[in-house]
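Researcher: Structure prediction, please.
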Amino acid sequence: MTRILIVKIGAIGDVVMCLPLISEIRKREPNARITWLCGKQVLPMLERVEGIDELMAVDENALLKSSLPVRIGEILRIWSKLLFRNFSLQLYYYHSPLYKILCMPAFFRETRGFGKQKSGSMLPVPGRHHSHEYIRAYLNQEEPAEILPEYPLFRNLPGKSGLSDRKRIVLASGGARNLLRNDGLRRWPLSHYARLGQLITGQGWELIITGSEGDAWVKDAFTGIPFTDMIGKHTLCGFIEFLSGTDLLITHDSGPLHLADLAQCPVIGLFGPTMPEEKKSLQEKSIYLWGGSGLSCRPCYDGRNYGNCSSNECLISVSPELVWEKVTELIKC
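Model: Predicted structure follows.
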């Protein structure tokens, strides 16, 4: 039996884009045993994904932000789970060797994934969707045949049978942050979201503002605009279930954009410093807008760092009226 260990801890969007890898492995090696070393934050989501045999969760806070004794304790806890385990293949999806420390007690016949250009390790090709590149590394091919990433089944999804005649439009205007960084350059301007909210409610549709508890700061921008406040109201899986009962999500390059694919909720994705072809929604009924077409600096994100920019001109150039035009097109489909 082929035994595969996937090492992908976070962030949420990156983990979601890695999920089509499960579908591809099951097509090619249906009897493989798949173990996933993941972050504690995404564990509940992965528990509902069809096709994963075993999950090992790392406490990211303990590993990355705690005192040295706590970090060592977390490493030893994972070591105890992997001690003397044998795997046919390790799929390691990081450029940094940081998480390889966690896997040291296990034995691997082969390792593939991202990293420096060497045998069994390759770099993602700019401009190709990350889901494609996770699969390409698994296949260990420089230029594989056409790959059409497909998400595995997300179990117990409610579906859209309960949708009312009144359209429910969701804005996720915060986010774009994880445990280690706050990527404000990825966010569409809050004033643009507010103007779009006026256009949505003017149509008589329900405007829903969503996000984590840490996104409560966005609500002041919608003062005077009637909206349903769903910020901090959902667990990770609860948010996916919630999106499955809505008509459209509008957001920038952030976790909700990817979670909407699991929920089968159409998306309008707003991009500026990052390349949309690498991270766009994989759903047929979704679109993206990439601002800053006349800017020589676009894209300015190299996979780790952004350009030295304070104006965010690329995303500012995507007007609320243009987004509204796309909203009406999708809703009519």
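Model: Confidence is low (pLDDT under 50) at residues 178-182.
Researcher: Thanks, that helps.
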